[in-house]
Every structure is written in C-alpha cells, then in structure tokens.
Amino acid sequence: MSEVASPPQGRGRVFPFARRSRGGAALSATETALLLVPALIPIVGLSLLPLARGIYLGFTDAHAGFQVHAHWNGIANFRTLLHDHAFVNSFKIGLIWAVSVTVLQFALALCLALLLNTDLRGRWIARSLALVPWAMPPVIVGIMWKLVYQPQAGLLSQALWRTHLPGQNIDWLADFKWALPAIILVGVWTGMPQTTVALLAGLQGIAGELHEASAVDGATTWQRFRHITLPQLRPVILAITSIDFIWNFNSFGTVYVLTQGGPGTKTQLPALFAYDAAFKYGQFGYASALGDAMVVVIAVVLSFYLFTRVREAVSQ
Amino acid sequence: MITSRHPRLVRTGQYTALTLFVLFLALPLLWMLSTSFKGPRELVELHPALIPHAPTLANYREALHEHDLIHAALNSLKVSVVTALLTTLVGLPAAYVLARTRGLVPKAGLAWVLISQMFPTILIIIPLFLVLRDLHLTNSHTGLILVYLVWGLPFILWMLQSYIRSIPRDLEEAAAVDGARRIQIVVRVIAPLLAPGVVVTVLFAFISAWNEFFFALVLLQSPGLVTLPVKLAQFVGIEGIVRLGPLAAASLLATVPSLLFFSVMQRWLTSGLLSGAVKG
C-alpha cells in the first residue's frame, strides 16, 4: 500500500527501463485464460454448442416430444422447404419486408440526421422523440400501432375521415392488400431512431473545414452532400444498413402482436413461420432447417450488398 | 452551414420536414396516451377525439389493480435485475482482455460478437430449449435468465470493452511502474474510471431483458411465471379490443423504466455504442 503512495518519480528513476517495457500492465497467458473463463463457459456451453446443434438439427427429422430422437436425413428438410408453398411465401414476405423497411428507414433517417445536424430551433424535440421507439418494448410498439390501425375508431381512420379522404372504413391489419404496407410502416417507425443516431454521429465526425473549403470553391449544397458528406459517411452507412437488414429479417415481437402473421399468411415473416413450425407443430428439425435457410439468405444478401458497395467505392 | 441562393425557402422547407418527422414520431404515442386517459364512454365513441373531453385516471387505477399485471411486472423485475447483474459480472473480465490484449483473442471475440448478431433466434432457441429441458429449467426463471445471459453477452462485451478502451493504458502502466499490484491497479485506478460505464451497461442489460418477448414466450408456460411483455400480448389476444383504456395505461406504465433510462443515458449510450464502431 505504501508503495502506491510513494512519489512516482523516485520509482521511475530506480527502474529506468520499467516504463518502457509494457510488462507492468500486460497480461500473462494464465491471467488471460482465467479472465476469459467466466464468459467462455456460457458462450461455449450455451451459445456455440447449441448453435452448432441447431444448425445440425436442420438436417434431421427431430420432433418435439419427451425424448428427441433426431435422425440424420440429409437435405430432405431443404427439399421439402423448396416445395413448401408456405415457406416460399414467408421468405418472399420476409425479403419484401426487410428490404423495404431497411431502405425506407435509411432514407428517412438520413434526412432526419441531416436536419438534426443543423442549427434549426426545436430540433431537440425530434431528438428526444427519436429515443421513444428505441426504448419501447416491441410488444408495446405492437399494441400502440394496433390502436392506430383500429378499424374506424383508430387514429388513421379518424384522420382520413376528418380530412374526407377515402379508406376510412379499411380494417388495415386484416386487409389482404394493406396489412403488409401497414406493418412496414411500423417497422420504419421502430428502427428509424437507431439509424438516425448512428448517422448523426457519423455526420458530426466529418470535419467542418472540408465543407467550408469546398463552399469557398463554389460548390453547391448538393455537390457538397454528394462529394463530401456521402463518401465520408460510407462506413457508417454500410454498417448500419447491414445491421438493420439482419434485425429486420429476423424480427418477431411487434408483428406477432400486430397480426400474428395474418390475414391468412400475408404478414407471416420467416421468424413467425419458424416459431409456428417449432412450437405450434413441434417440428424441431424442420424449423431448424428454416433457421439455416434464414442464415443463408442473410449471408447471400449481405455479401452481395457489401461486395457491390465496396467495388463502387474502389472504382470511384 | 447551409448556404443557398434562397435561404428563406430552404429554411421553410427544413422546418416543414422537421415538423413532419415530429408528427410521425409523436402521433402514435399521443394517441395511446390519449386513449389511456379516456373514460369508458369516450372509448366507444364512433369518432374519438385526440384530446379527451373528460380526462380520467380510472384506466391507470384499473391497470394497477389488475393482479395478473402486477405479478407479471414483478416477474419481469426479478428476471431483469438478475440478468443485468449476472451478465455484467460475467462480461467484465473478458471485456478487459478484449480491450487490453492484441492478437487472436480480441479478434476472435469481436468476430463472435458480430457473427452472433446474424443468427436467427429460432436456431438458438430450439437446442437451448432441449438443453434446458434436460436440466428441468424450461418454464423457470433460472432458465430464462440463462438464455438472456447468453443472448445479451455479445453486446454487453462490446459495450464494456469500448468503455475500458477509453481508459488510457498509461494510467495502468504508471501505477504498475510505481509498484502497484494488479489488484490494486484494478481497484484504485480502473474501477473508479469504469464505474459510469458499468452502470450504463447494467442498466442497458436490464432494459434489454425487461423488453424481451420471444424467449419468454417460448420458455415460460405457467401463467404465474410469465413476464410483462408476454402478459400484455396475451391481454391483447384475449380482451384487448374490449378494454382499450387499461391496456393503453398498462403499456405506458411498462414503458416508463426504459424511457427514463434512455432519456437520462442518451449521451452516454450513444458515445459508448459508437466509439468502437465509428472511430474504430
């Protein structure tokens, strides 16, 4: 204890090389291992191994039951999947949902982030409001929008009625044409804030001198946005849109509360389909195969997206 | 910053856009708020107004007297507190290693954090369900907490390691040079500086567990065990359309903890989440 209290410069002089060698603060191999163990046990035991087993189950005929006897049946599940109309339908809906939500989210979030990055008065209102969807539990987001979409007495129908616009009698969430657009709007509302915060942080990281210099050179606002802001933001944009896409493709809670996949299977996202297969019908093997297929879809879409973006960046 | 030949026009456009954003974000929320303050008669009106004619607290009283909801809220509280403390405790030592070493370990760790985000919950929940069933832990809070621990750990590790990284290494080295032992360095140098980051992380883990729905829906079957989101979702299914007022009131009350957290921690949170991602 007294060693800590002793004047620093004294020690430094006695061991002139101590400061240079990082030995004092570096971790030995044993220490590293000991520190990693508490996290490694759950990660390996409850995450990596189960995940490997989950991927494996996709190639078996496992069913729910007191004893699960899983028999390897190769790609039989996947062959069934491809001929399963409900599966193809849910993946189609999943892709429409994930792509449109991600794109709209990004476009709106970019606008909002640019607005928040100015000196407009009252932008703190938008800034604080943007936190709400982020903080709200998905189930409550679902309940809230159920109130908005209520037939006739809901906010949307009332707004249409008051402005004498058509559509006031539509039961939005039960309508075959409108249910999917309706939940897409909810998805955009839910995810826009995180995207805005990320983009805003990216915008604030761009040096102001760049803008000033090019303004002096006579560049218009649009030119500066196109040639300075966008390229500088590229890493943030790539990261946030990729993560948004993954989250959206896997999302479950809000839509479960809003429509439970209905009407019919019009809003049955892949996660809802897999949940039904596993916990309503007990088809663990089949549901795992669905999960495997979801990973493949995400990986394919993301690598294509990242590949084209990076090539674009290189060619510029 | 924005210069243009028509400054006034641009300004007007900007304010219009900002107003539209505010309306889009706020209206659904205001609608739920207004529903929660409406009496039974106003709730069944054919053309309900945005501002209640005779605001009442009856819905809140009713929600707070709903025995099931209170019980579910207490379940949520218990699960979330234990999850938050456990996840942070388990994550801290590993986060230290991720932040302070170089080479394979931190790279593998961070790669796992990213990859774990890619997997759909269905792939992890089926095998976990089987493991937990063998241990007789399905339909129990212990099982749910274990699942939350595993599911939350990647993000918690990411947050903690970015906070640790922001503490200058020189401080530790200087203390080591002065002859302080590792335990002294940790207690006297790192702990005080890391405390705010740890608090934010604990709260973040709490909110994630408080808001979580899917795992709770799958794992908990007994009505006495379910958490608040599951109970509220059932409420919608069974009687939500009939009792809009109490449902809206309960939903708003259930959002209060996370809302408080996010508004207080706004700055902390964004700096913690983004310091690694943006400037990395």
Ordered list of secondary-structure elements with their pairings:
The complex is a heterodimer of chains A (316) and B (280).
Chain A: H1 2-5, H2 8-14, H3 29-57, H4 76-83, H5 85-116, H6 123-129, H7 131-135, H8 138-148, H9 155-162, H10 179-204, H11 208-216, H12 221-250, H13 253-258, H14 270-280, H15 284-315
Chain B: H1 7-36, H2 40-43, H3 58-65, H4 67-100, H5 104-118, H6 121-134, H7 141-165, H8 169-177, H9 182-211, H10 214-219, H11 228-240, H12 244-279
Characterise the protein shown here:
The complex is a heterodimer of chains A (316) and B (280). Chain A has 316 residues and is mainly α. Chain A contains 15 helices and no strands. Chain A has helices spanning 2-5, 8-14, 29-57, 76-83, 85-116, 123-129, 131-135, 138-148, 155-162, 179-204, 208-216, 221-250, 253-258, 270-280, 284-315. In chain A, helix 3 (29-57) packs across helix 15 (284-315), helix 10 packs across helix 12 (221-250) and helix 14 (270-280) packs antiparallel against helix 15. Chain B is mostly helical and 280 residues long. The longest helix of chain B is centred in the C-terminal third of the chain and has 36 residues, at 244-279. The model of chain B is unreliable at 273-280 (pLDDT under 50). At the A-B interface, helix 2, helix 3, helix 5, helix 6 and helix 7 of A face helix 1, helix 4, helix 5, helix 6 and helix 7 of B.
List keywords for this structure.
heterodimer; A: 316 residues; mainly alpha; 15 helices; B: 280 residues; 12 helices; globular; disordered C terminus
Compact overview of the structure:
By secondary structure, chain A is mainly alpha-helical.
Element-by-element helix/strand order of chain B: HHHHHHHHHHHH
For the report, how would you describe the main beta sheet of chain B?
none
Spans of at least 5 consecutive residues with low confidence of chain A: 1-24
**Cα-atom radius of gyration of chain B:** 24 Å
* Tally of contiguous helical segments of chain B: 12
For this entry, what is the oligomeric state of its chains?
heterodimer
